[in-house]
Amino acid sequence: MRASRPAIERRATAVSTPRLRIALAVATAGRPACVLALMERIARQVRSPDTVIVCGSAETDVAGIAERFPEVRVITSRRGLACQRNAILAELTTDDVAVFLDDDFIPGPGYIAAVEAVLRDRPDVVMTTGHVLRDGIRGPGFDVAFADAVLAADTGEDRDAIEEAYSGYGCNMAVRLAPVRRHGLAFDETLPLYAWLEDVDFSRQIARHGPILKVAASRGVHLGIKSGRQSGVKLGYSQIANPIHLVRKGTCSHRKALFLMSRNIAANLSRCARPEPSVDRLGRCLGNLRAALDLITGRLDPTRILAFDGSEGAHR
């Protein structure tokens, strides 16, 4: 249930809360232009991050970043969102908070300031996620100019709203690092490549140690760029394999997994005859079917998509 900030119970805090060290963390693959556009807009934040770290899977993923933004720490790791985010976590030894943004998420200028305000005011909170004004992942996607226009026109309606959330949305979520270090939390590398539902898995791990809040003042636009993501067949397989994997490890309920799987299967089947131009519905259906067969034969495993044929150049 949505509640305004004063309506949420607050725990006692010290008279003077120390300033938090906040890191901006970006994992990227195949989209250096997106990262450059994001870095330009991070420079406009009301509250600048203390650390900025970008992790690619190859030098080409991060081309030009160090030259244009020398303050950014650039690293590489094995490809895969979970692997790359874990590589970033390993680098953040002195920061208090990691703000994970997708390379195609454009934050409003007050995004980081809002994160800091909530986490300083509520030391019990372990994660926040923001308000996505427009989400291009649900269609063909947006360009940066569109995102800039949306943010410029934003009236800030419901800016003070804060509500409890089941999980962070992976394109924009801030994580308090103390419980991550204390309990050895990590993103699940069993979920390869685009790692669908890695945000839910990590959120439910950290939710054992405190609440997760959705903070409307942390606002932005998710472009939903389609390049650099996995093929339709691989995503379709992940739509079945990943929820079942999370149920088995205890970070997703049977009910939620069934909802996610049935919703995606229904969407893929109903739109297969007349698919959206930006979505490979046939590929997703084939991936769903392949996962169902593997479930029946006892071979279902999220990592099996690594052996599939097909392009990883488009998330369709």
UniProtKB/TrEMBL annotation:
Pfam families for this protein: Glyco_tranf_2_3
MF (Gene Ontology): glycosyltransferase activity
Domain of life from the UniProt record: Bacteria
Sorted UniProt keywords: Glycosyltransferase, Transferase
UniProt keyword annotation of Transferase present: yes
Spans traversing the lipid bilayer: none
InterPro entries noted in UniProt: Nucleotide-diphossugar_trans, TonB_box_CS
UniProt similarity note: Belongs to the glycosyltransferase 2 family.
Name of protein: Glycosyltransferase
Species assigned in the record: Methylobacterium planeticum
